[in-house]
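Attaching the record inline, Q. Sequence:
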Amino acid sequence: MDRIHIEKGSVQETLIIPLYGRKLCAEQFPTLYQDEYAARICQSIDYDFSKIEAKKNNAMYQFGGLEGAMREKDMIWEITDYLKDHPKTAVINLGCGLNMTGRMADNGTCHICNLDFPDVIKSILTANEKWSKGAVISLFTPFFSAPVGRSEALWSCTPCRL
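Structure, as predicted:
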């Protein structure tokens, strides 16, 4: 598997903390939160996790990981609830980051569209090679050419820190 290199100080590095927080939360609080993708995505990234790893037993860092994981879980619940009344909606996740919110909320009839930087998209595809449902698109793709193709769309924006 080709590992995606994340440069120190890059915009993409801001995705590492929430990703690792979800991984940590899934490991430490498995009855509250499950995320099979976070560990897989961490393995697909060429990044020195040692500084973050050293903080994993810190109570405030654990709380932050739990908080971030629950924020993602809330987003999944909101999307899932919306899809009950609009099952064939296109779910467009702007700035999807290194998460699989769309896949975890997928009802089987909606259309998932994840948009982010090209290397972020490559990380998602590398870690989840078997997932071909939905579109995973670089933010540099002109939107009019994005394969959404639905009359309804639910726009989801993943919060990020820049």
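DSSP finds six helices and six strands in the chain. The helical segments are 16-28, 36-43, 50-53, 59-85, 101-105, 118-127.

More tomorrow.
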